[in-house]
Structures are given as structure tokens and as C-alpha cells.
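Case study 2.
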Amino acid sequence: MIIFSGGTGTPKLLDGLKEILPPEELTIVVNTAEDLWVSGNLITPDLDTVLYLFSDQIDRKKWWGIENDTFRTYERMQELGVEENMKLGDRDRATHIIRSNLIRNGASLTDATVKLTSLFGIDANILPMSDDPVSTYIETLKGVMHFQDFWIGNHGEPDVLGVDIRGVSEASIAKKVLEALEKDDRVLIGPSNPITSIGPIISLPGMRELLMQKKVVAVSPIIGNAPVSGPAGKLMQACGLEVSSMGVAEYYQDFLDVFVFDERDQADEFAFERLGCHATRADTLMTSTDKSKELAEIIVGLFDTIVCP
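Prediction:
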């Protein structure tokens, strides 16, 4: 199975999937449009969350970073008057140093990710969406800023006027991602932010056309008219989408086969039929590994109901 992943939402679902499927059968294609260089090292927030999840290092309270990490380097830099855009843990920083040194020595982001996967003893296939640089910028009333400056530096507070995924139209789908898509017809769109987490992946040239030939199940990150977490609502609204499960389904409609939305949502499941997809209710609020596993079992079963195009 191929899973498109961003930050917190999809890794929680992956936490359940890895309990019911052999990890070597999972290929996770991860958003890289939120990556940035900090203090000379490449930070890949979404990739790292998936790496730490599968290596049992993830801080489950925050769903990012390494559990029980220390921040001595970050604190020392602050003492010396050097500010960083992100608060990086010491063990987390080691990951970034290894990745960045590999890239400086000629490795692609895919090569570096595969190496880290091996170092961490991970059997799942974790891949960046592209080896080309792609960056998400948010247009706000305070000016245009990188997504990390919007979300971390400004706590997602500025009003959003637009979203610009720079470089995506010139970027190529990573070679190993293409190879995975040739071998597997099941694609799961995880419950991550549809605009800035999943959006860059499906905006890569040729990706939507490839997905039209696959069995595609997507899980909504929206319950009612609000996201479970993060700034998805504000970003969807700025992109002209209704902040609802229906809005998410419409964004994916040209390749979507089955849409999973929360059992607490008031949306009419039959309304999704006009988008050309089937819809099913489930408990998508993953508050534990057991809850994630229950949702994962439902999703795996849904693929058997789809006739491949």
C-alpha cells in the first residue's frame, strides 16, 4: 500500500497501519514542501515525523520530534544571541546533520532518506515526494512568508490570502515513488492538511493522472467545519474550498474512489456520490494506537470494494 503523508494526522493513522500490515508492504510518500535549512542543516519536518514513528522514537505528546530529547544546543545558541527558526532537539539535530552531510556529498534527498531509514532499522519504505526543491509560502496580511514562519513563527495567526507552492510545477516525482506506483494500485491519502501537506504531492506534474489509474481512498482531516488540528481550515478557505469534509472530497474528486469521514460529522454520505466517489463513516479521531488500528482495519477493507480503473 502507498500512503501520502504530511504531519500529525497521517502518522497517527500509520501508527495503526503498521500494526496490521507488514512494514515492508508500506510505502509512505511524504510531503517535502515544508522543508527548510536551519543553521546549515536541512530540516524535513514531515519526513522526520514518519521516520521517528517507525523507529519508535516519536514524542507522542507532541507528535513531532524525539521523545525525551534535550535542547542544549538550541539553548546555548540563544544564550549567544543566535536565533533559529525552529526549536530543534539535540538528537533530532543529529538526524539533520547526517542528512545534510549526505546531500552535501552528492546524495539526493531520497538517497539520504533511505540511508536514515536503514540507520534507524526501519523496514517500511519511506520516501520524499520529490528530490527537487519545493517550498510552500503563505500570503498573509503581514506579508508573504514560508509555511514554517507562518505556522511556528506566527503560530498560524495571520489571516491567509493565498498559498503558493513554489517550484512544484518544475519538480519531478521522485524515481522511487514512481517505481512504487508502478507496482501497487492501492493509494491512501492520509488525514493531513489537504492544502499544504497533501496538496504539494498531488500537484507534482503527472501525479493526478497517475492517481486516476489507482484505487484511491482518502480520509478527511475535517470534522464538521473545523480541522482536527492545524491550520487546514484557514488555508482551505483561502484557496476557495468549503471548510468541510465535502470541501476536502471536492479537492480530491478527479481521482477519488472512496472517502472516509468522521462518524460525528453531519455531512450526508450520499452527497458525496455526486463527486463520483463512495463515502463511509468511521471514528477518525485517533486518540490511541488502538483507535488508529481500528480505523486502519476499516480502510484496508475498503480497498477490496474498489474496481481498479
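The chain has a mean pLDDT of 93.
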